[in-house]
Amino acid sequence: MNKELLARLLESAQAEGLDAIALVPGPNLLYLTGCGFHLSERPTVALFSVDQPPVMVLPALEVGKVPFMETFSYTDEEGYAMAFHEACVALELAEARIGVESLRMRLLEARILQRYASGAQLVPADDLLGRLRMAKSPAELAAMRRAIAVAETAFLGWLAELRIGMTEREAAARLVARLLTGGADAVSFDPIVVSGPNGALPHAVPGSRQLCFGDWLVVDWGAFVEGYASDLTRTVTMGPPTGPLCAIHDLVLRANEAGRAAANPGVTAEAVDAAARAVITAAGYGANFTHRTGHGLGMEVHEPPYIVGGNSIPLLPGMTFTVEPGVYLEGVGGVRIEDDVLITEYGAETLSTLPRAPFVVSA
């Protein structure tokens, strides 16, 4: 257990009028305890009371992971009811205000808490937990740098494997293999490798379309290394770049540069979004930039701070996020250029190093 982080968590919880925080398996629980669990039909919940030592309710087969905190365990034969009842009684959670991960907690765990912490009120604590993790430590940043390096090296090696006639699905599978054999602990998400008109959908899924001469590809990929993610997007062309997307690529590149240039300590997240968006809007393609400019990056691929209009949070040293403007033309294709950025004491550092010009595959 990281005692400093625990103290910060409980101080924030108390300031927001919460009696406890309940965490389920995922990045927040891993961040605080260093222990990884997975969601299953066997519920696992850690309970962090503001005035009592933390406890965890978990299957008996998992108890060995947490020798540093009190546990209430259950076997498959017993079921979890008594363990949750005893934990909630021990922490006096009846009528309590319990902060929960509204984006992660399932109906299963929510109903368990409402049943055994009688009268408890479950309150979203996502903002509180997000603030805890937004500023990255030197060790976290070192892991992120390694995740970026692994992703970039895998991508460069993968380019040599692309061939006319290869399907998007095969190309994506080959990229996954490069990542996993090149040092990634896991892919940070299923890569997007889409070609031609499929590139007009920002989150398209690789399919059976074959790569053709003249295609523009949107390639969005990343790696997890030591628990931290990278997330990158570049454009690849099958043969020399031609057609209307040449001008679109130049436009998106300028928007990417404007967004990264706007990122500085004290600048708001929405100001970075506005800087990138203004370039695309001025060129008449504002309606074709259909998503936010970026998102926080760390133990999750999408986490605070979100680089989007309406988010007035100031960017502070240690925050890491993406800058990824894009333009998407239905029936033609799309272009997105995504970099990973760190706010420093004096400005911003772009952690990703790949060139941003289209990568040309000889056909």
User: From the 3D coordinates, which CATH architecture of the largest domain would you assign?
Assistant: Alpha-Beta Complex
Cross-sheet strand order for the largest sheet: 4-3-2-1-5-6
Distance between the termini: 54 Å
State the CATH class of the largest domain. Answer: Alpha Beta
The pLDDT mean sits at 97
Count the domains.
Answer: 2
Helix fraction bin: 25-40%
**Which class of secondary structure composition applies to the elements?**
alpha+beta
CATH T-level topology of the largest domain:
Creatine Amidinohydrolase
How much beta, percentage-wise? Answer: 15-25%
Question: What shape does the CA trace take?
Answer: elongated
Low-confidence stretches: none
Total number of helices: 9
CATH superfamily of the largest domain: Creatinase/methionine aminopeptidase superfamily
Give the SSE string: HEHEEEHEHEHHHEEEEEEHHEEEEEEEE
Number of strands: 20
Radius of gyration: 23 Å
Biggest beta sheet attributes: 6 strands, mixed
Write up what this structure looks like.
- The protein is α+β, with helices and mostly antiparallel strands.
- It has two domains: 3-133, Creatine Amidinohydrolase, Chain A, domain 1, CATH 3.40.350; 135-361, Creatinase/methionine aminopeptidase superfamily (Creatine Amidinohydrolase), CATH 3.90.230.10.
- It contains nine helices and 20 strands.
- Strand 16 and strand 17 (333-336) form a beta hairpin.
- The longest helix is centred in the middle third of the chain and has 22 residues, at 138-159.
- The N and C termini lie far apart (54 Å).
- 45% of the residues are buried.
- The model has no long low-confidence stretch (mean pLDDT 97).
